[in-house]
Write a structure and sequence with these properties.
Keywords: ATP-binding, Nucleotide-binding, Transport. By secondary structure, the chain is an alpha/beta fold. It has 2 domains: 218 residues, Rossmann fold; 61 residues. The chain is built from 10 helices and 14 strands. It is globular. The structure holds adenosine-5'-triphosphate. The site of adenosine-5'-triphosphate (ATP) has 10 residues, from helix 1.
Length: 304
Amino acid sequence: MANILEINNLTKSFGSNKILDGINLQIPSGTIYGFIGKNGAGKTTTMKIILGLLQADEGEVLVNGEKVKFGQSETNKYMGYLPDVPEFYGYMTAKEYLILCGKITGMSKIQIKKRSDELLNLVGLGDDKKKIKSYSRGMKQRLGIAQALLNKPKLLLCDEPTSALDPLGRNDVLEILEKIKDETTVIFSTHILSDVESICDHVAFLNGGKIVLNEKLVDLKKIRKADGFEIVFVNHEDCVKFNQDYMEFEARGDKTLVLKNGSQEDMLFAMGNLAERKIMVEKIEMLEPSLDSLFMEVIDDGAI
Ligand SMILES: Nc1ncnc2c1ncn2[C@@H]1O[C@H](COP(=O)(O)OP(=O)(O)OP(=O)(O)O)[C@@H](O)[C@H]1O
């Protein structure tokens, strides 16, 4: 599969503060890429360089095989961009706004009509006649996605698209991004790891100016050991009794115990013990490694 984006040895400092320290990234078409980093890691800086809005100190960026040049918009025809807080003309309706954007980018009237209807339906604003100023943050974010997709970009860059939204708004945005992935590769910067887990198929972690991890999500989970296991008891009393004998388990709620980093052997031992003592349980299961725990490892170690 061809790479829609290639970043080679990208370096950027602000004064003496080195934000990007030789980052490399290859992003294949047709993926949803989670670009993860804590606040201030340099996610927005990277996106601005990809868009040609900021000059790199060293390195190069190729979009659809073409080199990005600072201050020139040549490669931006392949890209849509959703900033973290998109700005609109509040006195317009969503449709009026998309028509204006279409005119600015030189689309024909017929194209504008067809594409804006299509996109407003996609983002759930098809029947909306309200002025944008009355929109919720979630609605604005969805309109921002529609605008970024107007010229059918091959690559959509979303800068923290869900960070300011409530769970419902976040879900709407994630569902839209998932729907478009066959046509548009999505790079999605965030520090909300559950969002990445729910829709991304690749993740890259930016930390200390470097990409410290870059994997398919499924592979990442395979190579990481499980996060231990949990036992859910049928009743609270059994849970307490078992915990008194095995204090290395942590209680989670009334009827659940977790053995962090517990192995399969530990789990088999616990199962044998429960059977011997005729203690009924609802379930025992190994816990999937979460991105949260991986993220903490990366942040702590600087690398995996
Ligand atoms: N124009 C600038 N001049 C000086 N420092 C800057 C400039 N732009 C960004 N920085 C600094 O670079 C660092 C990285 O910022 P950036 O916005 O890229 O981080 P981020 O990963 O997007 O974080 P966030 O999640 O907070 O948006 C921060 O310390 C920021 O203060």
